[in-house]
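Lab channel / #folding
Pinned by the channel admin:
"Please post every new chain as: sequence first, then the structure tokens as a reply. Keep commentary short and put observations after the output so the thread stays searchable."

First post following the new format, from NK:
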Amino acid sequence: MVWAAAYAIFFWWFSTGAILYVVSRAEREGRDGYMSAVVMAVPVLFLGCVGVMVSLEDTGLKGAFVGFTSALLIWGWFEMAFLAGIITGPNSYPTPSETQGWERFVRAWGAIAYSEMALVFSAILITLLSLGASNQIAVWTFMVLFFARIFAKLNLYFGVPNINDEFLPRPVRHLTTHFRRAPMNAFFPISVTLLTFALACWIERAVAMPSGSGAETGFVLLAALTALALFEHWMMILPLPDAALWRWLLPSPKQEKYDTKMAAETAPTRGL
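Reply from TO:
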């Protein structure tokens, strides 16, 4: 079902671009602008929650698309809240470049702790709501996004050669000091292997389902989303200009470049 895969790819591209656009526009008004953007997007979160509930007992094509889209809407709201600096973590300071070991991990975790805990809570809630339901597409969509995010953040922490940080808004630019550039890390092969295995499972399930059924459509959507997550991981290794997919959507180029080394050297070193 090529059209289902095309829908997943388009929605992933469009929603990512929409979030970047809104957050970029909000940057002009500072903290109030970011807060307003997140609050104004609450109806999107509500729509996603309602959509998940509606999709649970619908095993047709509509149920597959509604469950998939609704999970992405919920995820998108949390992603916007994160990029806007509204739901991040207690540590908002850059990490000095010489920080190593346990202290570096604690600082990195402190930078994203609230966001990760909110996503864990959401994942648990969607899982509980989906227990025994006929349509599990929403929960599986959220889980693909959840684990792909964890894999990506761990790879950025351990070190990869290509780090695309040009779209990070001002409230979360300090996160670049928690990233590490390295030719490779031991976790990268594990993460891409797990994502490849998940992709193979979705494809196998889609092939096994009746043609044109809601189940087939759902597994095609999951396969496309997992393939996109796999693509994003490989972009950490391969020097391809993936940022060009969204750069043209932004209202204007950034007027300043964040100097992470300078920020790290001048940041407070107490606590997190």
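NK: Residues 17 and 246 are 6 Å apart (CA to CA).
TO: also worth noting, Residues 2-240 form one domain.
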